[in-house]
């Protein structure tokens, strides 16, 4: 059933202020249904998006005008394309928007990122890039298939001797701990790690002692230490040359987590008691690095990057989120780009992915236990980056007042160091709110860049200044 929703003028104004972009498209009612399928397919093949049909574009690309369909039946030709592209009825939602005083009904469509590849009526696949629906060439189709999880680079075979994985120290140690034990080559063939007398990419990654020799620049972990809180690290901020961690995936994960934890121990941040060692939950580091390694796109020639800053840790994994996965549903939905790697690495002793599918949820829960904010997951053009911030769950006001319980005064720079807020003006606004609330006051005689604030309290109806001793 199609719903008709009446919206107020304020929401009409918001719609008319929208600009066409990666997640939004505006079309006039004259658009041909066949042309409409290009935009729909492009959204479904990329990250999803919203489409409004019944909005005229102004001469300057702005100043849009509301001019919808006379009635629902007038949009039947446009609605039919959804049955063609989404025969099972999933992957999209649509409704008609109306407003008193505005002309006609605007068709509002929400298109989800889909598991499969959608083709427009011209039988071509399109993908959304910025405000354009771009046709996909042969090379792009293979990349899209991998991004959708339809194919996986892990199943490709490698031109190398099967001895690389059937006679390695890694496979021998693995087989000795397996139940039942057996001959490595026989077992690897049963698991499809050897196909047509060649090792697969998954087989090399899991059971070769040095997979980087066969798969260079696509299966190591780089670890960086930047002595800064800047948004981006630079060569000048590097504490040492980046470390490269190699070996089988199982060994890589263990070494990378251990090295990251070791480097973090040397990082100190400003807290209520002064400079203190920074603390991140081990579970968070372990689960996020594990996810970056086992779920990355091995068809992308790049390494996993772990960047340690003074106030955060960034873990960047090559490849976009696969299939229908998005940053919004990643904690609830499950999809394995590398199903064989996920399944077989779980057979190792003390596997890194003990609770398959629960890794990120465990990472988020561990942060909450330490009263730190959730990690931020960002999907970039060709990678996924997780930002593990050392930001406290308390509000800036709470953090300021907590600091003043053990210190006589506080200034703008200290607040920014405690809270991670980058703007001096934003901190000034917080100070003003606390002054208005009767919680703090400016320290007399300190102005300009030297400005500082101290706590005040009410005693017998009067304000009393708290000195260094708290008296």
From TrEMBL:
<dbReference type="InterPro" id="IPR007421">
    <property type="entry name" value="Schlafen_AlbA_2_dom"/>
</dbReference>
<keyword id="KW-0547">Nucleotide-binding</keyword>
<dbReference type="InterPro" id="IPR038475">
    <property type="entry name" value="RecG_C_sf"/>
</dbReference>
<protein>
    <submittedName>
        <fullName>ATP-binding protein</fullName>
    </submittedName>
</protein>
<dbReference type="GO" id="GO:0005524">
    <property type="term" value="F:ATP binding"/>
</dbReference>
<dbReference type="InterPro" id="IPR038461">
    <property type="entry name" value="Schlafen_AlbA_2_dom_sf"/>
</dbReference>
<dbReference type="Pfam" id="PF04326">
    <property type="entry name" value="SLFN_AlbA_2"/>
</dbReference>
<keyword id="KW-0067">ATP-binding</keyword>
<dbReference type="Pfam" id="PF13749">
    <property type="entry name" value="HATPase_c_4"/>
</dbReference>
<feature type="domain" description="Schlafen AlbA-2">
    <location>
        <begin position="20"/>
        <end position="135"/>
    </location>
</feature>
<dbReference type="InterPro" id="IPR036388">
    <property type="entry name" value="WH-like_DNA-bd_sf"/>
</dbReference>
């Amino acid at each position: 059933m199609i719903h008709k929703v009446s919206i107020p003028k304020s929401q009409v104004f918001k719609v008319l202020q929208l600009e066409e972009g990666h997640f939004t498209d505006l079309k006039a009612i004259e658009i041909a249904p066949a042309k409409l399928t290009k935009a729909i397919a492009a959204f479904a093949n990329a990250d999803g998006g919203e489409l409004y049909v019944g909005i005229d574009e102004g001469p300057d690309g702005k100043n849009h005008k509301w001019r919808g369909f006379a009635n629902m039946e007038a949009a039947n030709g446009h609605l039919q394309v959804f049955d063609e592209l989404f025969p099972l009825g999933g992957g999209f939602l649509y409704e008609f928007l109306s407003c008193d005083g505005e002309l006609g009904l605007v068709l509002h469509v929400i298109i989800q990122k889909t598991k499969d590849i959608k083709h427009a009526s011209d039988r071509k696949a399109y993908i959304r890039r910025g405000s354009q629906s771009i046709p996909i060439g042969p090379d792009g189709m293979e990349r899209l298939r991998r991004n959708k999880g339809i194919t996986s680079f892990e199943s490709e075979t490698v031109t190398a001797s099967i001895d690389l994985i059937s006679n390695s120290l890694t496979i021998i140690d693995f087989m000795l701990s397996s139940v039942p034990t057996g001959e490595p080559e026989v077992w690897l063939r049963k698991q499809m790690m050897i196909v047509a007398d060649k090792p697969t990419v998954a087989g090399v990654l899991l059971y070769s002692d040095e997979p980087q020799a066969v798969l260079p620049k696509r299966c190591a972990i780089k670890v960086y230490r930047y002595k800064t809180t800047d948004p981006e690290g630079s060569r000048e901020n590097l504490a040492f040359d980046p470390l490269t961690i190699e070996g089988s995936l199982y060994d890589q994960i263990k070494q990378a987590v251990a090295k990251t934890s070791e480097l973090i121990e040397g990082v100190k941040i400003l807290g209520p008691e002064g400079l203190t060692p920074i603390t991140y939950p081990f579970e968070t580091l372990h689960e996020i690095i594990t996810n970056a390694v086992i779920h990355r796109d091995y068809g992308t020639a790049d390494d996993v990057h772990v960047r340690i800053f003074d106030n955060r840790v960034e873990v960047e994994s090559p490849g976009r989120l696969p299939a229908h996965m998005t940053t919004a549903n990643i904690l609830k939905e499950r999809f394995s780009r590398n199903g064989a790697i996920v399944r077989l690495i779980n057979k190792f002793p003390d596997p890194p992915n003990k609770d398959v599918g629960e890794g990120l949820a465990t990472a988020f829960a561990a942060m909450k236990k330490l009263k730190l904010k959730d990690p931020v997951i960002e999907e970039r053009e060709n990678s996924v980056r997780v930002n593990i911030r050392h930001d406290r769950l308390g509000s800036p006001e709470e953090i300021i007042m907590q600091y003043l319980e053990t210190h006589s005064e506080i200034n703008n720079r200290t607040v920014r160091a405690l809270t991670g807020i980058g703007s001096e003006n934003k901190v000034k606004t917080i100070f003003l709110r606390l002054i208005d609330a009767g919680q703090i006051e400016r320290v007399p005689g300190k102005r300009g860049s030297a400005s500082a604030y101290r706590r005040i309290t009410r005693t017998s109806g009067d304000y009393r200044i708290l000195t260094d001793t708290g008296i």
